[in-house]
Amino acid sequence: MENVLRPLIVVGGSVVLTVLIGWATDFLLRKADDRHRETPLWGLLRRARVPYQLVLCAGLLRGSYDQAKLFQDHRVGIGRTLTLVLIGSAAWLVIRITAAIVESSYARYAHSRARRDPARVRRVRTQVSLIMRVVAAVVGVMAAAAMLLTFPAMRAAGASLLASAGILGIVAGVAAQSTLGNLFAGLQIAFGDMVRLGDTVVVDGEWGIVDEITLTYLTVRTWDDRRITMPVSYFTSKPFENWSRGTPQMTGIVYWHLDHTAPVEEMRGKLRDILRQCPAWDGRDYGIAVTDTTPNTVQVRALVTAKDADDVWTVRVTVRERMLRWLCEEHPHALPRVNTADAVPPPARPAISRNGVAHRLHEPPRTGRG
Do 108 and 155 sit in the same domain of this protein? Predict the structure, then answer.
């Protein structure tokens, strides 16, 4: 009877104690979150309740099953399993707590600087994202190393592994040259302020917004919701356009090819009326100028401004559409036409031939008799 009750008391008591401590901790965090609405730290810490309870349960079972003399035939295997669970859940808990602290700090910073300096906020968000990935990678590697050291065979092989570490490091460095290059390029992007999350970029002729940055690759979301994924080393080795660098304000260009009789001065007034009715226009500047001419048409260019890339696109398409509609309704003669009229010959001019006989140009001289 004792052999049955003892495992139930030890395992059941550990589980019940874990649940009670976890509930009490979550209750305190919830109360703290209600009292301190200015910071999201306490609410973010509640995300760590699962690894927290795993650490508690594994620690209680690991410390009590030896004294309870449970499963003596499998004592070593059970102890090692509980140790591995404890190490893994502790690493998970450290990552969750670190993420909560970093995210709460970023949230307070973004709330205070979002309106004054949005570009810097995006820069800090990029750095925070990459720092969390580095922390998760380092903690994961350390946890894996600690798990391996729980096996006696791994500890015995430690001396030989350290002796060959130099050669293995050289081989691994050569084999993972591109991976390491992307890793350092990711750190350079994070702290060099080359590109940030939310930036509007043009890469290989594709316009899009930076959607994700990791230590090895970067994802650009295009206007039609496609995702372009490329190694981060691309942005440190090749040129690209960053429309959000410095200030997000932009100037857009609209072209029309019109007839030579186009009313350019009236188009300037109409452009002003169109922009006043367009909410995306920021009111900084506008203008119309004739920038080129051909035998059949003239090229008219309009300049418009907006606060960011999305709004400047809206302003451009609005101006192009409404100006064409106005020209079709009010000045149809200003639209380009294909000239199909007969060519007018030049007027005839008298000329003197070599023998002194006068005749008209384009008229053959009279020859023959009569």
Answer: yes
In sign, the C-alpha dihedral spanning 227, 228, 232, 235 is negative
Residue whose tokens read 């050569």:
174
Can you list the positions of beta strands (E) in the chain? Answer: 200-203, 206-213, 217-222, 227-231, 241-242, 250-258, 281-293, 298-306, 350-352, 358-360
Owning domain of residue 102: 2-162
Q: What is the domain count for the chain?
A: 3
End-to-end CA distance of the chain, in Å?
Answer: 150
Is 204 strand, coil or helix? coil
pTM metric for this prediction: 0.50
Do 238 and 254 fall into the same domain? no
Q: Give the pLDDT confidence of 289-312 residue by residue, as tens digits.
A: 999 988 888 999 999 999 888 888
How far is residue 284 from each of residues 6, 251, 268, 275, measured CA to CA in Å? 80, 10, 16, 11
- CA angle 33-132-22, nearest 5°? 40
Residue 123: alpha-carbon gap to chain centroid: 11
Helix-helix angle 49-68:75-113, to 10 degrees:
160
Under 8 Å between Cβ of 130 and 215 = yes
